[in-house]
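We treat protein structure as text, and this decision shapes the records that our systems exchange. This encoding replaces a full spatial description with a residue-level series of whole-number codes. Below, we set out a record of this kind in full and without editing:
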Amino acid sequence: MLSEPFEIGPEWLRQGQLWCMLSWGPVERRENGLFSAAYARCGEDSVRQYFLGVKLEQDELTLRWDFPVKNGPLRRCPVH
């Protein structure tokens, strides 16, 4: 699943077969780009909730979860 792309929208984050419902906070302009945070409710049978920090710097996106995991920097997939 690590090679699966993330799909992030206004209400959902998906990576492979993992789906998370997102509740976004405000977007902040910071020195190097934009930052927002979301509560992510992930899973189907045993739903778990996480805090997710999202940083956009130049054209690179970094996701930082409330456990010691960082995804990124990520870049856009080519559009066909």
Remarks:
- The longest strand covers residues 33-42.
- The CA atoms of residues 62 and 73 lie 5 Å apart.
